[in-house]
């Protein structure tokens, strides 16, 4: 049974989420503050965390920073009433894999939780450890991208999966919905989440010395990965 840490300072929201998660077979441990969440994490391991970003006693950003400092491998889905793109950039940059805005559907949140846990399961198919495209080499297992000049760049799991998808489909236009379905594995498409990760990937590619690979925006459709012919 997957163990989920649910962190929110509103009891009604915790109750609503817990009911739906427990019906789906998950074990739920609650915390009402960021400080309490850190205490829970020191006591036991959690496969996934549902984290409210704005709380009075230690906010969600403190929890994300703690996870990063301790190198704890816990999937984080952030909850927030804030819809600003900069908040999403900060949150995803600190390691969250998804961002859900309030108010939200509990069933949608459940779908996102299930999709993220499926994505973390070991693949049964025989998957190459390295993905190569021209001068780029993506080390999928170790979440590292480098080129023939050996400029290593560490990636988050979502960044790695996105780049793998693009490298395996060079010069092909991938629709936004197709990308979201492949990476997040559910139908609740969020254009802002995707655009934040695309922006991060572009900066990573620009930082690789000598790389000419580019993520092109195909207006109204999606993205195309090309370069280094």
From TrEMBL:
On whether Ribonucleoprotein is a keyword of this UniProt record, the answer is no
Gene3D superfamilies tied to this protein: 3.40.50.2300, 6.10.250.690, Winged helix-like DNA-binding domain superfamily/Winged helix DNA-binding domain
Q: Which UniProt keywords apply?
A: DNA-binding, Phosphoprotein, Transcription, Transcription regulation, Two-component regulatory system
Name the CDD domains for this protein.
trans_reg_C (cd00383)
Q: Look up the DNA-binding region in the UniProt entry and give its residue ranges.
A: 128-227
GO MF, any single term: phosphorelay response regulator activity
Enumerate the Gene Ontology biological process terms.
regulation of DNA-templated transcription
Species for this entry: Fontibacillus solani
SMART domains for the chain: REC, Trans_reg_C
By its UniProt entry, which PROSITE patterns does this protein fall under? OMPR_PHOB, RESPONSE_REGULATORY
Top-level taxon of origin: Bacteria
Residue numbers bearing the 4-aspartylphosphate modification: 52
Provide the protein name: DNA-binding response OmpR family regulator
Ranges where the OmpR/PhoB-type domain occurs: 128-227
Q: Which InterPro entries match?
A: CheY-like_superfamily (IPR011006), OmpR/PhoB-type_DNA-bd (IPR001867), Sig_transdc_resp-reg_C-effctor (IPR016032), Sig_transdc_resp-reg_receiver (IPR001789), WalR-like (IPR039420), WH-like_DNA-bd_sf (IPR036388)
Q: Which SUPFAM superfamilies match?
A: C-terminal effector domain of the bipartite response regulators, CheY-like
């Amino acid at each position: 049974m997957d163990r989920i840490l649910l962190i929110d300072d509103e009891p009604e929201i915790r109750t609503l989420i817990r009911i739906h998660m427990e019906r789906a077979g998950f074990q739920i441990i609650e915390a009402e503050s960021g400080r309490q969440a850190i205490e829970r994490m020191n006591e036991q391991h959690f496969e996934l965390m549902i984290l409210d970003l704005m709380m009075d006693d230690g906010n969600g950003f403190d929890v994300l920073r703690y996870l990063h400092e301790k190198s704890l491998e816990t999937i984080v889905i952030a909850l927030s009433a804030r819809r600003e793109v900069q908040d999403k950039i900060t949150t995803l940059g600190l390691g969250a894999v998804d961002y859900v805005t309030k108010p939200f559907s509990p069933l949608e949140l459940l779908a996102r939780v299930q999709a993220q846990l499926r994505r973390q399961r070991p693949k049964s198919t025989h998957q190459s450890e390295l993905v190569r495209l021209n001068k780029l080499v993506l080390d999928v297992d170790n979440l590292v991208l480098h080129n023939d000049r050996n400029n290593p760049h560490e990636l988050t799991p979502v960044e790695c999966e996105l780049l793998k998808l693009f490298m395996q489909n060079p010069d092909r236009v991938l629709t936004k919905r197709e990308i979201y379905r492949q990476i997040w594995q559910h139908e609740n498409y969020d254009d802002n989440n995707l655009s934040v990760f695309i922006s991060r990937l572009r900066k990573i590619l620009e930082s690789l010395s000598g790389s000419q690979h580019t993520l092109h925006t195909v207006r109204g459709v999606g993205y195309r990965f090309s370069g280094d012919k």
